[in-house]
Amino acid sequence: MSARRFYIETLGCPKNQVDSEVLKHKLSEGGLLETHTPEEADYIIVNTCTFIREAKEETIDVVLSLANQKRQGQKLVMLGCMVQRYGDILKRELPEVDHFVGFHDLDEFLKSLDCKVNGSTQEFLPETYPYAYLKIAEGCQRQCTFCVIPSIRGPLRSLPPEDVLKRAEFLVSKGYKEIILIAQDITSYGNDLGKGYGLKDLLKDLAGIDGQFWIKLLYLYPGSVDEALLELIAENKKICPY
Which residues of 31-65 are buried (b: 16+ CB within 10 A; e: fewer)? Predict the structure, then answer.
């Protein structure tokens, strides 16, 4: 019996890109083979975005285009933000789609494909070499009236510092030259851990990793960018003023 094959189309922000990289790793660990065109795949997976109107429109256009190309036996899968927010509507309006996978459904989807749910994702190589996105938290504690992210991604959940550092050390050891920290709001990192360890502490520890590399910061909440953080960025050559 030939190996099952999958194709992932990633829409939206770098955080989605990281989610897709993790999913690729888990699917590959489960014995599925990645293809680079949807025509070759048994499972066509679209990692969706719903942040703004244009993103929603692009997502629907991509899904319908792939649905029109789908051959008999192929499965079309929508997952991610749009499914989490509009799952019931999508199920009603898009019969062409075979599986709708919200964030809470991902484990069950992986199990249905005989893939490990809790396998390690520390040692896989992003396809973005020589830079890599490093997600340090999920969700958001802000309640900005213009933003739907907390209602989609849930509350702030910071990754343990030791996990972040281990992943960064691995990437640097493999020659990645830019480690780009991402989260919904990286300035909130650690607020939920109750350890008095925050973004500035993490940056100091990351900068202490041996090797020649840069650290870049994405998605900072302006009101939380204080003088101490700016001084740390200015004083450390590894942290880009970016």
Answer: ebeebeebeebbbbbbbbbbbeeebbeebbebbee
